[in-house]
Every structure is written in C-alpha cells, then in structure tokens.
Predict the structure.
Amino acid sequence: MKLRQFGNTDLYVREVGFGAWAIGGGAMVGNTAIGWGDADDQTSKNAIFKALDRGINFFDTADIYGLGHSEELIGKIFGNREEVIIASKAGNVARSGQFGTDYSKDHIIKACEASLKRLRRETIDYYQLHSAGLSNLKDGECIEAMQMLQKQGKIRYWGLSLNTYEPNPEAEYLMENKLGSGFQLVLNMINQKALPLTKKASGAGYGIIARMPLQFGLLTGKFDTGAEFPENDHRNKRLTSEVIDAYKNGMKDIWPLCEKYGLTKTELAMSFILSHSEISTVIPGIRTAEQAEKNTRGITQLQEEDLQLIKNADLVSLMKKLIQLG
C-alpha cells in the first residue's frame, strides 16, 4: 500500500487505515446500540496484528467506541510506539443511560486526558471533534480546547469528523477560518455527497479520512434480503430489507466492473475511493484478521470512464432510505 501525506502535516499514512469502531464491542447506551455486536478481544488483537503485517500504520478510534474499550485495546497493544499513528475523537457522550454530545471546553480537555490514559500515550497524533455542528464551532469552546491541547503537546494535530449526509457547513467554517488540519467524512460508492468537498479541502491543505467505505458492510455484497443483526449491533435498525433491496437495484450497473478489473466487490469499493488522489486514507471497519487481509488488497486505479459510471448511477432511492434511518 502507498503512503500518502495527511494534508500539510508531517504525518504520512498508508492509503488504507484501520477503523476501530467495531472492536469496541456491542456497547449499549440505554436501548440504543452504539456498536457492531459482541467482539472477542483476541480476535480483535489478531486483526490489529494482521493489519500491521499488511502495512497499516493509521488507527482511528474514539472514546465512545465500546465506551472506551476500543481505545483500551489499542493502548495495550501499541502504547507510545512512534511508528503507529493514532487518531481518536471526543464529543459524543453517554450519560444517565442517554446518548448525547458535549463540546464544552472542559469536557474536551477531560476527554482527551482520559483517552491518553486508555491509549497509554503521551500524545494523540490526530484528535477530532466527533461530529460537532456549526453552532458548536461558532461557540468556540471546542476549538479553544483543541488549540490548548495542541499547545500543551497532548495532541499533534486536530480536525473534525463531519456529518454523514451534510458535511459542508462545518468544513467550510474551519476552512474559512484556517482552523484544524483535516476532516473525516463519509465517502463510498453509495454516498458521494462529500466528493466536491474533498477537492476543495485537499487543495486548502487539509488531510482527508474517508470513513464507511463499505456502507456498514453493504458494499461487500454479503448481505441478502432478510439479513438479521443482534440488538447490540447498530445495523439492526439501519440495514433493513428495504435498504438491501434498494442496494441491489441501485448497484446492478456497477458490479460488472468487478469482472472488468478482476476485483471483488470490496476491492472495487475501496478502489473507487482511493482512485481520488485527494483522499489521504480510507478506514474500513476491521474486526478480524481475514477482514484486514481483504480490505488491503486489490487497490486499483479505476479509469475515468468507470469512475463516471459509478458517479452517474441511480442511487437516489437507496440514499433516501439510508437518510431516513440515520
């Protein structure tokens, strides 16, 4: 895998990174699933070690993933290893059995301290506000906290994990005010709303992390109508039979590209994203050694005509269903 510079920073990341949400396990906040079902720590460790073997050097986690368990697991394995780049996030909270957000200066600073302890690191390489909204940014407390943490050396760089379907307002605010160093955004063959933003942000010197490259596993092609997920897996409410049916119809003209390039569906999905040079790294969720293998092979530069075919596909019905379900 190639190394790509993360914006104007001195971080050089492999083009495929490790999304560490799923290894947090099947955490629940009240009746709300915030994980991917149960996870076995030894299986997760094997996935991390296989990712290292495959060349991955960028691991993206958050304090809310498994209510801290994802960070703890990564911390036990890596600690202060300098050759591994660790990104985490703060701002999502679980309090009194309710899921919410807190972007106050006090909370962000305390959250960073807690993440550093769980990660067993002196510095977090890239720290992100977890889906902060425009009002939070304009309030200024969260930005002040990030700048303070950076000045203190507790984080090297900071940025923003953007809204899934409307990423532009917050990104524009940071770019206009020359704040932060990067953005994490949703980009895949189904959800392409952030594509124009990637060009502008990259041109302005921001690193770009593409998340959800496989749309919760939908783009691997392994789910059929009637697929079921446990209550502690957030996909229980998101990958409904209606969504899977709309996916099958919307992608029917795209999948023949797999035969043209000799790629699996996963490899085509990853290649679509990485065919855009603006992307610094893409972070599929990895929970097993097998997934670490499958998500890091077959990266291919797609021809422009095929990129346009994917961009012109009729995915409106599928997008509407995904937006409705959150």
